[in-house]
Design a protein that fits this description.
Elements: E1 6-10, E2 24-27, E3 31-34, E4 41-42, E5 55-60, E6 66-70, E7 75-77, E8 99-103, E9 110-115, E10 131-136, E11 145-146, E12 153-154, E13 165-169, E14 176-182, E15 188-195, E16 198-199, E17 204-207, E18 222-225, E19 231-235, E20 239-244, E21 251-257, H1 266-269, E22 275-276, E23 282-286, E24 297-301, H2 307-312, E25 315-318, E26 322-327, E27 333-337, E28 343-347, E29 359-365, E30 375-376, E31 383-388, E32 397-404, E33 412-413, E34 424-425, E35 431-432, E36 440-444
Parallel strand pairs: 5-30
Antiparallel strand pairs: 1-36, 2-3, 3-4, 5-6, 6-7, 8-9, 9-10, 10-11, 10-12, 13-14, 14-15, 15-16, 15-17, 18-19, 19-20, 20-21, 22-23, 23-24, 24-25, 26-27, 27-28, 28-29, 31-32, 32-35, 33-34, 33-36
Length: 445
């Protein structure tokens, strides 16, 4: 079972501990959603007018205050202004997954923005491949900017990466992996480690079973790693189910399959995106077609990884076409309909089997701003939160944890050695009376 270590600074009077880095979504044509209240609320129009069928990257601080957002080509600050050096990133046009951001481990004011794609027409222009740029939030009076000397840095072997771009936490829940699919005579998965030394430029290389294509159109290709760091799904000519080793970055292909309806055109036969439930038990594939026969949302179960059992687990949970798909902080999955409008489909209970997942057609309104078949993507990570009651110095503080995968055992250290034997607990939801005012590092593992 994976091990979790969480550090929490506890101050008197208590402030709320938050994990709001992904609480604000900016995407589409001026569209936005905030989850800071615990549920989805449409935002007023934003500055971004994003190209169709692609993800963006939106980053907030831990309290849910927006810091910046990007479509892979431009970067906007919290005032919805393009950063002075925030144009001209190599994020491509009209691609499914052109950009993702990962925070530096040594300087929390810096972010690595990874991009893939073409510089222009995806059918004719040269592929620019995988690059990263460094964003420093200390620049431009605290509004942030791209460091000029650290912009569009190419990563070795990533020159043929097109649109399959994702990132997930390492097994240690601190470092991160950025993973792409390399196209060529032999297609390969490349996993780049981001740790305390920065971006490691030598990737972990794994062979894919995909066949070589003359030129990948980029439209129907995507990649996703499960929140528990165990499974990798990649769609190219078909969808390839793989095992992912989040300790080593190694990818092991298992089998390929057609995620959508068999025997249909590529637009309906495969899917633009896929998304796992938070417990990694299920994966969802939306088909993308305006042909009513092929409008479906499919759920597959990940518990059995032989191809026959996996395919037999398929259940159609929705009869609507969709394109991009993303898990949200409220635990629901949101999907962009085929129609370019201001509505999103919602899967309300993604961890429930079959129709119990409660798919709802056109369930959320963007209040007049259109999704343009776009949604943001974020660094996949384990679910590992600490919750505590607020209180004053004289109060007992009640703690609980919210962890996935479920831990075999839990041990708390309250960072309060003056409390003696009461400084630790093995209870799932302990209480602690701190010996005095100050700051405490509460650890859970």
């Amino acid at each position: 079972m994976k091990q979790f270590i969480i550090l929490l600074i506890v101050l008197f009077p208590f402030s709320c501990f938050s994990q709001g880095e992904f609480n604000n979504w900016y995407f589409g044509v001026h569209a936005g959603i905030t989850f800071n209240s615990g549920f989805a609320v449409a935002l007023p129009p934003t500055a971004m007018n994003q190209g169709g069928i692609s993800t963006s990257s939106s980053v907030s601080d831990s309290l849910g205050n927006i810091l910046f957002y990007s479509n892979g080509i431009k970067v906007w600050n919290r005032n919805h202004q393009i950063m002075p050096n925030g144009s001209g990133l190599f994020g491509g046009y009209g691609l499914c997954y052109p950009v993702i951001a990962v925070q530096s481990l040594t300087d929390r004011s810096k972010y690595f923005i990874f991009t893939v794609g073409w510089v222009g027409n995806i059918f004719f222009d040269p592929i620019v491949g995988l690059h990263y740029s460094v964003l420093d939030m200390n620049l431009n009076g605290g509004l942030g900017d791209i460091v000029p000397a650290l912009k569009n840095i190419p990563l070795p072997m990533g020159d043929s990466a097109v649109t399959q771009l994702t990132a997930i936490r390492h097994l240690n829940n601190k470092d991160a992996w950025v993973v792409v699919l390399r196209h060529g005579a032999v297609k390969q998965y490349l996993a780049y480690l981001i740790d305390e030394t920065g971006v490691n430029t030598t990737p972990v290389v794994s062979e894919s079973s995909f066949q070589r294509t003359i030129r990948n159109s980029g439209y129907f290709t995507n990649i996703r790693i499960s929140p528990n760091g165990t499974y990798l799904m990649c769609t190219d000519s078909l969808t390839e189910l793989c095992l992912f080793d989040d300790a080593t970055g190694k990818v092991t292909p298992k089998f390929q399959f057609l995620a959508g309806e068999p025997g249909t055109a590529s637009m309906a036969g495969n899917a633009y995106g896929e998304e796992f439930s938070i417990d990694s038990r299920f994966i969802y594939f939306p088909t993308a077609s305006n042909a009513p026969t092929f409008e479906s949302i499919f759920q597959y179960e990940m518990s059995n990884l032989d191809s026959l059992t996996f395919m037999q687990s398929r259940i159609m949970v929705g009869d609507s076409s969709s394109q991009l798909i993303q898990m949200a902080p409220d635990g629901k999955i949101y999907l962009t309909p085929w129609e370019n409008n201001d509505l999103l489909h919602v899967i309300n209970n993604p961890s429930a089997k079959g129709l119990a997942c409660n798919f709802q057609h056109n369930a959320f309104s963007l209040q007049g701003n259109t999704h343009y078949w776009c949604l943001p993507q974020f660094l996949q990570r384990y679910k590992a939160y600490i919750h505590h009651s607020k209180g004053c110095m004289a109060d007992t503080v009640h703690f609980s944890s919210d962890i996935w995968p479920v831990a075999d055992s839990i041990h708390w250290n309250f960072g309060d050695p003056a409390s003696g034997v009461f400084n630790s607990s093995n209870l799932p939801a302990p209480s602690h009376h701190f010996t005095g005012p100050g700051s405490y590092n509460v650890e859970l593992w």
